[in-house]
Design a protein that fits this description.
Alpha-Beta Plaits, alpha/beta, elongated, Rossmann fold, single chain, five-stranded antiparallel sheet
């Protein structure tokens, strides 16, 4: 039978093996007591779905048999759209839209004819009704209603399985051992118990974004010993520089240093099917070699970051020695980068607090414009070596219990915590040297969600969304701990807050000029013909040109995606169907639809092939 479903008409047929049963009040359906049925995991439209045995010859007789059971209130057939295996279960309700000028008395004739019961009136022409024991089944009733001269539209309410659009996990062979990105209390292949949830929630953040960060975000790793031939960090490199030799060609052997390689891998290790994955694998990588205490080099490093477009600056080094506190030149260099970088939004600067077991953090991490990162463990405890102090901003997973895995330079002798070699190109890694680039990668995800955030806003988001770990008594009235800062970083909550700020607050909210509402004024257009291919997210149908302008400006500012408008005629009037995005596959569009929904914008995937 051909019926309306959503925006189209589809041929549906009864399932040969599935039935839906709704239990009678205060009675449970005992599937084991019913011969030839096995309960499926799905519960759709208020019905439990059962699969009948292949020995049952007549599904109609079986449904009648089950309807006669005391514990069954309602039984229904389950349907499939031709060519699709998903079960469709009618809930019993039908949306009916009558033709213009059909009055209530005439509507009542239709309702009575099919023994329907009105559930809700939604205007003069729109009714939600439900079938009764005297009605044909909802599918047939909707089809008969469509044939009525009084009815313009009739659609049965159908429930089916929805798709959950999580990104597929990286196929990199060591990914499932990277507990700091996501863990469930165990590490595959390791006979070692860790604490479930003691991770940075990076995989959840990827799923919320619908991607693994933007390639428009650049992370500068300031360190020594980058093996840029390593497959985990060898691509998407921009503006490298070695300050020791004053050259854009990095020293291949790092003068014996190797620390920069694992730091870079933790922040942005590439998803390439081998090795490990960083927190923001799509980011651009700016390797800056040649750390120095000298104020001139320090100043040059931060100038390079600002002048060459670094969004985030990760520094897993510093000093806690009081003799080497920052002078005014260094303080000013950091301040300028944090306030003048990113075209005035400020570079996000992340410094390690240090591994000295001191009640005093590195002097670089004390700077008020930086994010000072301490370390927590795979058991959500303070890492014994991590320095403490009132300047600690945040903590992030590292070693102290079970280490994380990171790439190593080819000249790095490295080591594995337990002596078991898992890869010749990787090693166990830790310290605040590891927690710091992890936070840097998370900052890249935050900026991917909302690139207009200032550096201070990124820091505030990390503080606001951190998870409190350790004993509550450790935190003062501000919610701050000298060991954990404001808590363990939570990438998923941070990304969610960045999206919320982008869409709902302050200067990030689009400002619509008053004359836009009338469609009057002066506007800049860039119009391209959209082929009838690809997919977008339809967000509305408009009759007024002014509303099209308003919504287009809002959506383009919110999502930075092309706005596609289908102009057509309906009942002699011009209408504008508005869609966001132009994606090559339905799955890509669906992932973006999820992001829009999280941002509070409703819509559905639209195949541009059906628009003319």
């Amino acid at each position: 039978m051909n019926i309306k479903i959503g925006s189209g008409n589809f041929n549906v047929k009864k399932s040969k093996r599935l039935l839906g049963l709704k239990q009678a009040e205060k009675r449970a359906i005992k599937s084991g007591a019913k011969s030839h049925t096995t309960q499926k995991p799905e519960k759709l439209g208020g019905f439990k779905v059962f699969e009948i045995d292949e020995t049952v010859q007549d599904i109609n007789e079986k449904l009648d048999e089950l309807r006669a059971e005391d514990d069954v209130e309602i039984g229904t057939h389950v349907y499939h759209i031709d060519g699709d295996s998903k079960p469709l279960v009618p809930t019993g309700e039908i949306l009916i839209i009558f033709n213009h000028n059909v009055d209530k008395e005439e509507q009542g004739l239709v309702i009575d004819e099919f023994k329907l019961e009105i559930v809700e009136r939604r205007g003069k022409e729109r009714i939600i009704a439900k079938v009764t024991a005297g009605s044909p089944n909802p599918i047939k009733t909707a089809r008969f209603l469509e044939d009525s001269s009084l009815v313009r539209y009739a659609e049965p309410d159908l429930d089916t399985l929805i798709d959950h659009y999580n990104l597929p996990e990286p196929t990199d062979d060591l990914f499932n051992r990277q507990w700091h990105l996501q863990n469930n209390g165990f590490i595959p292949g390791e006979n070692y118990q860790i604490t479930s949830g003691a991770d940075a929630k990076v995989v959840a953040a990827w799923n919320r974004l619908g991607n693994r960060g933007s390639s428009d975000v650049t992370i500068a790793i300031v360190d020594n010993g980058f093996d840029i031939r390593h497959p985990d960090i060898s691509t998407n490199i921009v503006s490298p520089f070695d300050f020791w030799i004053n050259s854009s060609n990095l020293s291949i052997d790092g003068f014996g240093y190797s620390h920069g390689t694992p730091c870079a891998g933790v922040a942005l290790g590439r998803m390439n099917g081998t090795g490990t994955v960083g927190a923001a694998p799509n980011s651009k990588f700016m390797p800056l070699s040649g750390t120095s205490f000298g104020w001139r080099v320090t100043e040059n490093i931060f100038k390079h970051c600002v002048n060459h477009g670094a969004d985030i600056i990760s520094c897993s080094w510093g000093t806690s020695d009081a003799k080497f506190a920052l002078n005014s030149v260094k303080e000013e260099a950091i301040r300028k980068a944090a306030t003048e970088g990113r075209r005035g939004l400020g570079c996000v600067i992340v410094f390690a607090v240090g591994n000295d077991q001191l009640d005093n953090v590195s002097y670089y991490a004390k700077h008020p414009d930086v994010i000072a990162v301490a370390a927590s463990t795979s058991r959500d405890q303070h890492a014994f070596y991590s320095n403490k102090g009132q300047e600690v901003t945040i903590c992030a997973p590292s070693n102290g219990d079970w280490p994380i895995i990171a790439p190593k330079a080819s000249w790095d002798k490295g080591h594995w915590f337990d002596g078991q070699i898992r890869s010749s190109e990787h090693k166990h890694f830790g310290g605040t040297s590891s927690s710091t680039p992890l936070v840097a990668g998370i900052c890249a995800l935050i900026l991917s969600a909302n690139p207009k955030l200032t550096a201070k806003e990124v820091k505030d988001i990390l503080i606001k969304t951190a998870d409190k770990i350790g004993h509550p008594s450790e935190y003062d009235s501000r919610g701050h701990s000298r060991r954990f800062g404001f808590g363990r970083v939570n990438a998923d909550k941070a990304v969610a807050e960045a999206i919320r700020m982008k869409d709902n607050t302050g200067e990030n909210k689009p400002v619509i000029e008053k004359d836009v509402a009338t469609g009057q004024g002066i506007f800049r257009f860039s119009v391209k013909r959209q082929p009838s291919t690809g997919f977008g997210i339809q967000v509305g149908v408009y009759a007024q040109y002014g509303n099209v302008l308003i919504r287009s400006e809002e959506l383009e500012n919110k999502f930075r995606q092309p706005i596609v408008v289908n102009i057509n005629e309906l009942n002699g009037k011009t209408i504008y169907r508005m869609c966001v995005g132009n994606f090559s596959t339905r799955n890509e569009a669906a992932a973006f639809q999820k992001r829009m929904k999280q941002a509070g914008v409703a819509g559905f995937v639209k195949d541009y092939a059906v628009l003319r």
